[in-house]
Design goal:
heterodimer, A: about 60 residues, mainly alpha, B: about 525 residues, alpha+beta, eight-stranded antiparallel beta sheet, five-stranded antiparallel beta sheet, 23 strands, about 30% helix, globular
Chain lengths: ~60, ~525
Amino acid sequence: MNSDSQTEARRFVAKAMERLKSAAGRKALREVNARSRVASEPFKRARNISSEKLNRRFTV
Amino acid sequence: MPKVAFDVRPYSLDTLIELTALLSGQNTPEEIRAKSQPSYFDDYFRHSDVKTIVIEKQYIDRDYLEDFAAYYVRCFETYSRCCARLHFFTSSFDKRKLGQILVRPLDDPEMMAFTAGYCGFMVIKPLPRTVFGRTCLRTYPTTPSRQFPVARAFPANLFGIPLQVESTLPFQEQDSVVSACATSALWSVLQATAREFQHRLWAPIEITQAATEFSVTESRMIPNRTGLSTAMMADAIRSVGLEALPLDIEADDHDALRAALYAYVRARIPVIMGVNLFDTCVRNKPRPIGAHAVAITGFNVADRRGRASRTAFRQKATCIDKIYVHDDQLGPFAKMTFDGIPFRAQAGTGKRRREISVPSLATAWPSRDGSRRVRAVPDLLLVPLYHKIRIPYDDVFEAVIGFDGFLKTLPRSPEKLHVLEWDLHLSTVNDLKTDLQKSNLPAAVRVSWLTRSMPKFLWRATASRNAEQVFDILFDATGIHTSHGVHGVVFYQPAIQSILKLIAASPDLDQIADLGEGALRILTGMARTQ
């Protein structure tokens, strides 16, 4: 990567870090974290299969 | 004079039915025609342009022989221990021509044309009604969107001629004696896992016995008329040395179903899906048929960007619009479609009775009125796993969706890190390295990855932008859940590598109080790996 691109990348990262440390950035992080936790719930619940389902027979 | 051991007939549905009835020795053509499988097979054979059937009249099938030795031999009625086998070809020839081909050298052009036209075989069992034994037919053609990861080449031999079914997974219908639908689905699944994980192959009766050996049941299990439960199927999976992972599927969450089945089937692990079947040919009065088990062998990913969920997380798996299953009441590679059409059903009783809309999949099952309006409501998945695959899908999903959310909070840039699409699935190290070997990574970087020691199984989260690979996050699937688990990150785009590595190494990261666990885990992994 050339030095101009590296400089651009550093500027972007510095700007990103400043935004994330700001109140607006932290609020945005809290919101995505909450939505991510909600989206993960079905997969976590999937591993807790009820004994009723475990014992139901496939009869067809 | 030796008995004639074979025959050759041009293909037609009537011929298939007639031969099946005749060779089983236990059924009339009308009884065979009334089954659901012949018309399914006919659709397949016409689609594959099958023209000729070769009949092998006396065939010893290993699985049927085990069932015969354990059950049928003790019946008062005499059942044969020999099956018949039908072979299907896309080329046209007659018996005289086959006799000439049989004695040609293997590299003779006529012989090579003959073997190239081989579609597969079907064993006909000498039983009343349940006649379709081991059936190996090649899959529908694969495309970038239609994949059968579980299918493999399967060898066959016809009178000394080595043949090969290019891409298949064995199928058979339940015999309703030693096996019901669950045993048949398990039998197909274990045919695939035996190749992947090197365990012994069970015949259907052995599966039913292994499934019920330690169960306290209220009725006898052989004859198997009450089917198997998920717990019993899990016992059968454990009996061959694998781990059984049951996953409860919520009826209205098809995205979770798609994501979970894709994650494992993409890694060549067939998954058993439990469904509840309903015949909806009478409007607003769905008739329950019962709980059925099928083996998922492939999928079709529609050509569109992964639909964003409530979190705006775009995942390739959510574009799956069809799955292909071994359904013992239909045939191999039967299609189930996510057509988005719910059906109306009544729920609750008394004052709580209400009409609900039930998401479901379309199937090829015939309805009572002859139409095809039987719908399947998925209920659960059962995944057979090699014991070293320890880290579950939800663990990796949570990290990746957390990281994707973090990327969406960054300022907008030309690299467009906020619109990535994710492909999250299990992989072996060999499959990963085969992909890396073919990639456009710089030679030195490729050599570094190819020669690196890596876990046998990995979770691979591929981020793409406009169908171009951006980076792969690799999680050690054999690790322990308390570690960060990120084995490494493969970057395909230098600009994005530069940005993410700078973020991962930034001393300001510690000062970001609300950084989610998923993002932190992946950024830590990026900082640690070279």
